[in-house]
Amino acid sequence: MEIIRVEDLNFKYADGKQALKNINFSLEEGEMLCLCGPTGSGKSTLLRLLKRELSPRGEKSGNIFISGRRQDDLSDREAATDVGFVFQRPDMQIVTDKVWHELAFGLENLGVGQDEIRRRVCEIAGYFGMESWFERSTDSLSGGQKQLLNLASVMVMQPKLLILDEPVSQLDPIAASDFIATIGKLCREFGISIIAAEQRLEELIPASDKLLAISDGEIAAFGETRECVGTLISNEIFSSSMPASAKIYMNLTGSYKEESTERGKERTGAASDGSATAGFAELPLSVGEGRRFLSEYIKKHECAPEVVKAVDFAKAPEAPEDAKTSEHMKRSELAKTPEDALEFREVYLKYERNGRDILRALSFKVGKGEIFCILGGNGAGKSTAVCAAAGLFKPYSGKIKVFGKDIRDYRGQELYRSCVAMLPQDVQTVFVSDDYNGRHPYDLSGGEQQLAALEIVLKTEPKLLLLDEPTKGLDAGLAQSLRKRLKELAAGGVTIVIVSHDVEFAASTADRCAFLFNGEVVSVSDAGEFFTGNYFYTTAYNRITRGILKKF
User: Fold this and answer.
1) Which residue in 268, 198, 181, 195 sits closest to 227, CA to CA?
2) Within this chain, do residues 296 and 413 fall inside the same structural domain, yes or no?
3) According to the model, what pLDDT value does residue 33 have?
4) What count of other Cβ atoms lies within 10 Å of the Cβ of residue 131?
5) pLDDT at position 262, please?
């Protein structure tokens, strides 16, 4: 049964910007669709148009059908229940103070009877394993728990179509993997159709049945996931976003480097509308498939050393390995300067007098001119740590030093005068004007807001730059541009501390990495050593090649 069909959809914002052009696709019951595309390509606009209550203002043409009926013909109740929507920012969707009330809120607004509300709320809480935090305050939840709560509060409405706008962008790797596994289970076990837009595609693509790629408001590819990946991997706009296993396959088989775009289209049987009909049946998408392919390829070709070179190219095609090594050595030497830009010494911090410690004996040092990345699970205290470094939170015990001076000894605005600047996780708090280059900052896409806020922060010319999830909403190309910009700043003497769940970005950007667990740093090491030794907090490339290329 066809759950959604979009025909000739066009949309232009009130300011004249053409956001979508001739969008056509459909989705059957129980199918998952991965929506991908560069930052600002129109993904969020498309998702909001599919949820009638969230449709932006502007000029729209074309048709959207939900279960065979025109979207405009649905009753208010049908529109509210048949299509569920989970936002990118977990806090943006939560409206009540308790978990159980959040689950019941939508049903209460629909006038559902109390007995049915209790039954459906308890059922959904049990399904998602929320019994232990059913009565907790929503403010006390971790980022992963909040996103799961948002999903559950939508699912209790029993939708036919579930729409997710970058649902794992603020989740740690383990929570993100669990979340994608959960929505995949909803597809398989309940026949719910899902459309998910993401920039972190490594795990979403293998879980999806179909893929829709959008560039500049137009469809670049649509169809079965494996076929579309085979087509897009030779597309310079999308290639860097494709799974590492697919890149390795295409490099080793010669398809990626040697086949022209036209030959690639011929091989996949790509139609004029961007869909693919045949070919690439053996293309690996997941880490497991990539490992099996790589092991079989090496065995078949008797472990030729050229295999390693081809695989390394897939790891980071934007820079030769020797150039990256040279740069890293130069950056490591710069990080060994005698002066510390930031030091935490036995820091304890809590939000409430009788509350639990968020930071516990937190101790680490960041050298001047170093790029230092802090990783860890949701709720581990990473954002709290950088906020404390920015002077926004005050610990009740321990010391924080900025360029050798106790942070408490900075007077007035001295700490922020060409000294410390921070890009917060909620970048909308950075904007103090309703005009950014002729547009309201809230009209920008999530990724565009990230870049705009960073430019505003950098105008203060800080010596210590604190970044909380700087790649949130950025496509792979913009993440590479950000990496280059940060390395240029660091080469000029700026110290950069990054909190991130984006392990791919951290692995290619940081000089050293720290792992934060339960409010304290349990490990600090060189970035290469950090990611090589980890099992979950590591890159897809490392997970694919672990133990296979050791003999080389």
Assistant:
1) 268
2) no
3) 97
4) 10
5) 45
Residue 298 lies in a domain: yes
Rounded distance between C-alpha atoms, residue 159 and residue 126, angstroms = 18
Residue found by looking up tokens 């030779």 in the block:
234
106 vs 111: CA distance, rounded Å: 9
**What pLDDT, in 10s, does the model give residues 338-364?**
589 999 999 999 988 888 899 999 999
d(Cα 455, Cα 546) in Å, to the nearest integer? 38
**Of 332, 491, 340, 341, residue with least CA distance to 421:** 341
398-412 pLDDT, tens digit per residue, is 999 999 999 999 998
Q: Where do we find the tokens 């960073």?
A: 454
Between CA 48 and CA 54 the distance in angstroms is 5
Is position 242 within any domain?
no
Residues 6+ apart with CB under 8 A from 352: none
Quick one: 385 and 531 in the same domain?
yes
| Bridge partners of residue 466, in order along the sequence | 422, 497
Check which CATH number belongs to the domain holding 50 and give it. 3.40.50.300
Bridge partners (DSSP) of residue 374 are 499, 514
Note whether residue 238 is domain-resident.
Answer: no
pTM of the shown model: 0.84
Helix (H, G, I), strand (E, B) or coil at 398: strand
Q: Are residues 427 and 283 in the same domain?
A: no
Residues 452 and 440: beta-carbon distance below 8 Å: no
How many helices (H) and strands (E) in the chain?
A: 21, 20
Residues 497 and 359 in one domain: yes
Given a contact cutoff of 8 angstroms between Cβ atoms, the answer to whether 420 and 391 are in contact is yes
